[in-house]
Structure formats: C-alpha cells, structure tokens
Amino acid sequence: MTDRDRLLTLLRERSLRRGDFVLASGARSSYYIDARLTTMSGEGQRLIGRLGLDALDRAGWRPAALGGLTLGADPVAYAVAHAAALADRRLDAFTVRKEPKDHGTGRLIEGNMTPGSDVVVVEDVVTTGGSALRAIEAIEREGGRVLGVLAVVERDAAGRRRLEEAGHPLVALCTAEELLEGS
User: Fold this and answer.
1) Average pLDDT of the chain to the nearest whole number
2) Distance between CA 162 and CA 78 in Å, rounded?
3) Sign of the C-alpha dihedral computed for residues 101, 105, 110 and 116 taken in this order
4) Among residues 50, 68, 47, 66, which one has the least CA distance to residue 58?
5) What pTM did the predictor assign?
6) pLDDT digits (tens, 9 = 90+) for 80-139
7) What are the chain's domains?
8) Which residues contact 70 (CB under 8 A, 6 or more apart)?
9) CA 170, CA 178: separation in Å to the nearest integer?
C-alpha cells in the first residue's frame, strides 16, 4: 500500500463522520472531516510529512517555512518540517494565531517566519478557503511571500477557486470525494 493509499484509509477510519453537521461556513453537510484525528496521530504525522514534502517538490515550491491558522494547520506544518529535517533539508514551521497575544510580544505569527521569506500556507481541510486567506493576510502583512497553499484534504472546489482567484495555487494531498468513494 502506498503512503497516499494509507493516508486515505487513515482519514476514512479516524476523521470521516456521517450525519448532519453545520460547517464553519454555516453550510449543512451530511459528512464531516475532523482531520485533526489523523493529523495529530503518529502515523498521520509520518504520512503527511512525507506526502507533504513530496507535494512541495512536485509544485516546485522551495519555502523557507510553512504554517497556517492555528489549530488545524499546526500538526500539518510540524509534520512536513520534521520530514524535511529527516531528509536533511531545512524547512521551518510557524503558527498564525487567530488573535494577537495581549501580552509578551503581542505577535500574530509565532515561530519561524521572517519578513521577506518564501512560505507555504498549510491547512488540514480546505472548504471555503477562508482560514487560508486569513493566514495569508497575516503573513503578507508581516512581509512573508506566499508561494501557495498545501492542504491535507480539499473538501470543496469552491475553496480552490477562491484561493486561486486571489492568486494562491492550492495543492491537496486528497479530496473529500476520494474519501467518500472508499467509505
């Protein structure tokens, strides 16, 4: 079984739920993907790290760092950065807070993103693209150059369209359609 096939299986087993759900966008859905149950697992970390690093290479992206809006993006960024380190490549991670801290440095972006650096925004699941766009806005305000968006799951093509219309290509490790087909 390939790493990608195993990731699909893991997402189906751990993260895909059927029922009646209200999504963050307010839309109703007959299924929900809680990717954190996969992205925060040891096996999920291993698979996402390797597949994510490969996806960056296939896209031709050479970022200095990657990260996105906390909480969904965090384990994805750490997994890919760790896979890069195992391959003797330098790739750092960062987190974009939802709100700036009210103490300390008061930063919105924590970790290893510096002004002028090329970065990739990561997401666990892209539906509308709103979380990625929010992260992109914060990153660009801090001087980062966004190469594109890497997602574990692309839930809806509307998110891809919205990101691409804003000038940010999306690369996804899999789609919700693929998860549903095999469930």
Assistant:
1) 95
2) 26
3) positive
4) 50
5) 0.95
6) 999 999 999 999 999 999 987 666 666 899 999 999 999 999 999 999 999 999 999 999
7) 42-175 (3.40.50.2020)
8) 95, 96, 97, 98
9) 17
